[in-house]
Amino acid sequence: MADSRLPDQPDMAGAAGDNTAHETPQQMVYRRAPKITPFLVTGGFFGVVIAFFWVAFQGTSDEYTRAQTLGFMAALLGVVGLTIGALVWLLLDRRSKRHTETVYARETTDPQAADVALTKDDYLEWSQFQQRQRADEIRRQHQLEAKAAAKAHKRNKRK
To answer: Would you say 103 and 3 are in contact if contact means Cβ atoms under 8 Å apart?
Structure first.
C-alpha cells in the first residue's frame, strides 16, 4: 500500500482490468505525530536517575534508611519526569498539527512510485478512520442544520 499525491480523479488502472489498483484515490489527512510512550518512559527514567544522584550527594537523614529515601525520591522525581515528558510531547504534538497535509492514497504494487509506503493493514485502518471522521462530521452538520430548522420553525410558530 502506498499513498501518493494524486489529482482528485478516478483511478484508471483498475478500469483496465488490472486488480492492483481497484479503488479510487481517497483523500486523507497526513500528519506525523509523536508517540507519547517514549516521552513518558524517558521522563520517568531521567526522574529516577536524578533521584539516585540526589540521594548519593545529599545523603539520608537519621529517621530514614538510604533505601527508603531513594524509594521516596525515585517515586517523586519519577512523577515529575513523567509530567515533563508529557508536556514536551504535548508541545511537539501541537506543533505537528500545524504541519498537516492532505494526500490522496491508493493501492499500488510499485513502491518506487509512492511517496509513502504503508502496509495493507495500516492503509485499511487509516482509510476506515478517515471515513469515520467524515461520517461524524456530516452527522454533526446535519444535527446543526436540524437544530437551526427547529429554532426557525419555533420562531415562525410564535408569530
So the answer is: yes
